[in-house]
Design a protein that fits this description.
Elements: H1 2-45, H2 50-66, E1 74-80, E2 85-88, E3 90-98, E4 103-111, E5 120-124, E6 128-135, H3 141-155, E7 162-166
Parallel strand pairs: 6-7
Antiparallel strand pairs: 1-6, 2-5, 3-4
Length: 172
């Protein structure tokens, strides 16, 4: 009889734990849809950070150039033509009014509203003005060619925007 009572209490606790876990799961889903995602939306509507973009691209490109056979140590600098932009979604209204001989048409654009001020539909990366790569192996034409082609492929820029120079020797 005592064992039956213990089993009944354990079943009640197990059921309570299952219900608590379910309620916690629903709460987490609710928080992820409201609290956490609204901070992500706010970040998306912030102005494009061109300096952070350039620094990140330089770091990644530098690591890539160092992997090229014969390139050795490398430094990379990227200059930007434009700062990039975030374009917000627009609701467009079109009105046409007709007169006797002319038709007048006006389009009105309104920013699509959201809780964070706008919905970003296009994030345009900055345009790259130029890329300078300084590496140990740039004394070799083959290495310079490989570095130039790697930069072209990685950043989508033309050859005339890329300059590869040999790094000065330490102690000399």
């Amino acid at each position: 009889m005592r064992n039956d009572r213990i089993i009944a209490v354990l079943k009640e606790k197990k059921l309570a734990l299952i219900l608590l876990a379910g309620a916690l799961g629903v709460l987490l889903l609710f928080l992820s849809e409201t609290g956490f995602s609204s901070s992500k939306k706010a970040d998306a509507a912030e102005p494009f950070d061109a300096e952070a973009y350039a620094a990140s691209a330089e770091k990644r490109l530098c690591a890539l150039v160092r992997e090229i056979r014969g390139a050795g140590d490398a430094r990379v600098m990227i200059t930007l033509e434009s700062a990039g932009e975030n374009r917000l979604a627009e609701d467009r209204e079109s009105r046409a009014s007709t007169g006797e001989r002319s038709e007048e048409r006006s389009d009105e654009a309104k920013i699509a509203a959201s809780s964070d001020g706008g919905i970003v539909t296009v994030r345009r990366e900055p345009e790259i003005r130029g890329v300078a790569v300084v590496c140990e192996g740039a004394g070799s034409d083959a290495v310079r060619r490989e570095v130039t082609e790697t930069v072209r492929a990685a950043l989508g820029v033309s050859r005339d925007k890329i300059y590869v120079a040999q790094m000065k020797k330490n102690g000399g």
